[in-house]
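DEPOSITED CHAIN:
***
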Amino acid sequence: MSEDLLRIASDLLYQEADFIDHRRWEQWLALFTEDAEYWVPCWDDDGSLTDNPSTEVSLIYYNSRKGLEDRVQRITSGLAPALVEMPRTCHQLSNVRLVKSYGEAMEVASNWTVHSFNHGETNSFFGFYDHRLRRVDGVWRICRKKITILNDIIPGLLDIFSV
């Protein structure tokens, strides 16, 4: 049973990465539940991650899929000057593991690296993903994604496609 859940989770995470890299935004959004939380916490001065997006600074925080939809609309509208020429990205996931499963939900951890190329410049970010997946109408969806960036000195643009 846990091997089946791990395969399902891995396939979903790989699909998510592929949708981002190929800019298939509507399909990417469809992977998230309506109440999905998307969070990239900051490192504080003590070298610890912030742990409350309501009271502490986050690099990115959306408390529902609506926030992600608004961000995708801004990315695709052509109205954001910094995004007129989108970076090319390559998301790589490894060490995908099932942390916990309970009923119609599971928690999955993985490691990631994202390489991007934009205006002749190459950047990479890397870190950890923590996903909570939930079955909705028989289909597994992302209901929470926490992204820990280990190299958080941001050289320029940081967005949902960068991590």
Remarks:
- The chain has a mean pLDDT of 93.
